[in-house]
Write a structure and sequence with these properties.
262 residues, alpha/beta, six-stranded mixed sheet, five-stranded mixed sheet, 11 strands, globular
């Protein structure tokens, strides 16, 4: 749970609160769909936004892309209501192309790197160089990775760039509708990969570190408005808040690199 003291909360609201205060007399319910990368920071910031704006947030979670029933594209395609979408930039652009998100509404919030984890207490492989990283993957008995942006990159590009796609794919699996860290914590995979911000909150795992720079792929997480947004102005206010300098410390604390409010 967030650790806001009264003084810290007052600081956090600061200038970011001002645009919201006029909304208190006409409070709105803002429907948000968020992917895992921004979830920890977003949930920590909910109380500050709701207090400053008088609005309430109704939140659903799902992957930025993919065919899982709870993935954001699938939810929107079924007609589930949404005002604000928080997801990987590639995912939002795909939604715009399908007419499910509003063109020109994108605001970049944070940059996220791919990290690796093992079950708590297990040895941490050396992944400090590309060569040692390759050896760690070859030596692992089982590998888990996200069904969303980072996992698509890992399966389709990273394994091939390392020259080990054929060797590791038989022991690797994509994880749907669940955090990769939870699978690793149960001992169902020896090593797991996901955005750092999605690994850090999971109990029962040890964070090994980010994958080597030569194999790293940063993901931009952004916000946008759904095409059928019923509360577009309140949604824009939420997006401004998430991109503000006041929200940036919370983004950093949850493993993200702020962009707009950096």
């Amino acid at each position: 749970m967030h650790a806001f003291t009264p003084g810290r909360r007052a600081f956090l609201l600061g200038a970011a609160a001002l645009p919201f205060m006029a909304r208190e007399a006409a409070a709105a319910e803002v429907r948000v769909m968020t992917s895992g990368g921004l979830t920890a920071a977003y949930r920590a910031l909910i109380p500050a936004y709701e207090k400053a704006s008088g609005n309430t947030l109704h939140t659903e979670q799902g992957a930025s892309m993919g065919a899982a029933p709870d993935a954001i594209p699938q939810r929107l395609a079924r007609g589930e209501p949404a005002d604000v979408l928080l997801l990987a930039a590639d995912g939002l652009e795909a939604l715009v192309a399908r007419g499910l998100a509003q063109p020109g509404s994108r605001v970049d919030i944070a940059r996220s790197l791919i990290g690796m984890a093992v079950r708590s207490g297990e040895p941490k492989p050396d992944i400090s160089t590309v060569d040692s990283f390759r050896q760690a993957l070859l030596a692992a008995k089982s590998i888990a990775y996200s069904a969303s942006a980072s996992g698509v990159y890992i399966e389709n590009e990273m394994f091939r760039r390392l020259g080990i796609h054929e060797q590791v794919m038989p022991k690797a699996r994509r994880i749907y509708s669940e955090r990769v860290g939870s699978v690793v914590a149960r001992g169902e995979a020896e090593i797991g990969f996901q955005q750092v911000s999605e690994l850090l909150p999971i109990q029962g795992i040890d964070f090994v570190g980010t994958i080597p720079e030569g194999m790293q792929k940063a993901t931009i997480f952004c916000a946008g408005l759904a095409t059928g947004a019923r509360e577009p102005e309140a949604g824009r206010a939420l997006i401004r808040f998430l991109a503000s300098a006041e929200a940036a410390p919370v983004l950093r604390r949850t493993g993200l690199e702020p962009i707009a409010g950096g």
